[in-house]
């Protein structure tokens, strides 16, 4: 019976980019280069199971390190801080199409002159599933891993509005 992925299998391109890590994974699991060639030729199901298990290890490692995610559209930005027990959302939405949150220079322009018609909001929630599974689903649905600049900037904007 084939192994089901916890997240999803890496694509061929993703596997190619992680070739060194995959070779290390095979070695750690006692699989030589000759064994791998034989598995791919004679026991494809086993080879696919190994790729599935490796994919889960990769995703788990990446997801454990995620601290911030964000999702942008031209009129809305959602920045998330991913804590161990909950996720905090800081968001901004624009009523006007004069604001473009996807523009690279948005924050520089916003520091010079705060855009009109922008609402800042926040909320938080506990994870409904495991932390890593929720983050994985958010990434698969369009969120990007970030360094947290947008989250921090929106937090400051919210603090200045309240202060």
Nutshell version of this structure?
The chain is of the alpha+beta class and 163 residues long.
List the SSEs and their pairings.
Elements lengths: L11 H6 L1 H10 L4 H10 L1 H22 L2 E6 L2 E7 L3 E9 L11 H7 L5 E9 L4 H10 L3 E3 L2 H14 L1
Antiparallel strand pairs: 1-2, 1-5, 2-3, 3-4
Description:
The chain is of the alpha+beta class. The chain has 2 domains: about 10-65; about 70-160, no CATH class. Helix content is about 50%, strand content about 20%. The protein contains 7 helices and 5 strands, in the order ααααβββαβαβα. It has helices at about 10-15, 20-30, 35-40, 45-65, 105-110, 130-140, 150-160, and strands at about 70-75, 75-80, 85-95, 120-125, 145. A 5-stranded antiparallel β-sheet has the order 4-3-2-1-5, sandwiched between helices. A hairpin with a 3-residue loop joins strand 2 (about 75-80) and strand 3 (about 85-95). Helix 3 crosses helix 4 and helix 4 (about 45-65) crosses helix 6 (about 130-140).
